[in-house]
Design goal:
Helix content: 25-40%
Strand content: 5-15%
Number of strands: 8
Structural class: mainly alpha
Largest sheet: 3 strands, mixed
Number of helices: 10
Radius of gyration: 25 Å
Length: 252
Amino acid sequence: MTAISRCEATLELIPVLPDPKLFLVRSLPVYSDIEVGSSARMDNANSKESLLKDTPLSCEEFERGWINLCAFELNGNSWRPSSDLLFKLWSSVMSAVLLKGLDLERGFPWAALAQTVEEDGFPIPLLQALLARVKKPLELLESKCLKISAVAIDKDVCLRFVGAIILESQAGTGEELGVVGFLQTWKDQLPEKWRKDAKLEVIKGSYAQPTMDTITFNDGEKEGLKSISGATLVKASGTNSRKWHEKFKRAR
């Protein structure tokens, strides 16, 4: 005797492509205060390698999310910097750029920033993470004589990044800022020849305007985190019982 089972239910696989950085936001503690001693940070024992093993992402997706968050490793521990800290770090970078007369787009040895940044109390791995976030791909460096230790900044990426971290730093808790004041702060953190390009459309998607004269940060990450917080179960279109083994038993 041969028994054949039949299942009329269907399983639909729906592609979900959340931003990789949303997975890492849940795992990486925030590095927000360079004044706090290292002893206060020893509760985080996750290295980048261990996080990769425990995160449902490919190596490429993980690296993309890691770079987008400006995540970094320090003494074997992994961190993601707060927007306020990134704002302060970028201000330190711009001080070094102005002091040394560096051309961000053409390319420069990234170590030229290291002394100023270290003197301001920022760890070098954090500087490297910031530069990785806003740099041009290596193959786009304009000067062929530049070595791998050199970096050139992608103007469009950097403009958006700086504008977004300033806004999140100053209005990330839902506070409203004056548009004019925000734009001025943004321009003051850019090279002179970039200032004219600091416009709201550059950070589209990262802000909301309660009124024409005010602006606040638009945190899209909260919705994204909801989308990966748990699986959504969808019922099959049929609702009848499909206990095939009971039907088979009755038919014997």
